[in-house]
């Protein structure tokens, strides 16, 4: 994996990064409208409620869109993945042949390490495809 910068950890997203360090992917869910959202924030972006809670995500998703970056020594993939819970997440796709990826492809979460040692969620093609 390429040299990832450290995440900017704030009071609002700290639980997300702590869980990532434990190998778990979290998303926020609104108690008022029931919708999940990502990037982690205290206020629901759909109904503006402050009644949001952390939920463990399934770790499954599908590729919504992606781009293969070939300027580095080794190509890498940046993508939007639609999580099983609904929200989209910008991430990297790893352990794949970039030329074989397709939008709509099933992926599962994995974790890699940033420059400073923080766990960062990435995705790889689902086991039945590899």
Could you explain how this protein is built, in words?
This protein is mainly beta. The chain has one domain (14-125): OB fold (Dihydrolipoamide Acetyltransferase, E2P), CATH 2.40.50.840. Helices cover 6% and strands 39% of the residues. The protein has one helix spanning 14-21, and strands at 26-30, 36-37, 52-56, 60-69, 76-83, 88-93, 106-113, 119-125. It has a five-stranded antiparallel beta sheet with strand order 6-5-4-7-8. The two termini are 18 Å apart. The mean pLDDT is 94.
What is this structure, in a nutshell?
The protein has 130 residues and is mainly β. The protein has one helix spanning 14-21, and strands spanning 26-30, 36-37, 52-56, 60-69, 76-83, 88-93, 106-113, 119-125.
What are the defining features of this structure?
five-stranded antiparallel beta sheet; globular; OB fold (Dihydrolipoamide Acetyltransferase, E2P); 8 strands; 1 helix; about 130 residues; mainly beta
Strand order, largest beta sheet? 6-5-4-7-8
Beta-strand level of the residues, as a percent range?
A: 35-45%
Q: What is the string of SSEs from the N terminus onward?
A: HEEEEEEEE
Report on the biggest sheet.
5 strands, antiparallel
Ends distance: 18 Å
Uncertain regions: pLDDT < 50 for 5+ in a row? none
- Please count the helical segments: 1
Average pLDDT metric: 94
Please name the CATH topology: OB fold (Dihydrolipoamide Acetyltransferase, E2P)
User: Roughly what percent helix?
Assistant: under 10%
Structural class: mainly beta
CATH class: Mainly Beta
Which of globular, elongated, flat, extended, rod-shaped describes the shape? globular
- Overall tally of domains: 1
What does the radius of gyration come to?
A: 15 Å
The total strand number stands at: 8
Gross CATH architecture: Beta Barrel
């Amino acid at each position: 994996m390429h040299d990832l910068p450290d995440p900017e950890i704030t009071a609002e997203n700290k639980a997300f990064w702590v869980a990532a360090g434990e190998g778990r992917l979290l998303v926020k869910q609104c108690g008022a409208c029931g919708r999940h959202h990502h990037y982690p924030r205290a206020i629901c972006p759909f109904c503006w409620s402050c009644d949001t809670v952390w939920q463990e995500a399934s770790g499954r998703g599908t590729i919504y869109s992606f781009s293969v970056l070939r300027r580095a020594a080794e190509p890498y993939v940046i993508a939007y993945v639609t999580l099983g819970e609904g929200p989209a997440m910008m991430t990297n796709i790893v352990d794949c042949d970039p030329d074989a990826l397709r939008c709509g492809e099933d992926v599962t979460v994995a974790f890699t390490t940033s420059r400073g040692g923080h766990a960062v969620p990435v995705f790889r093609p689902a086991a039945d495809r590899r």
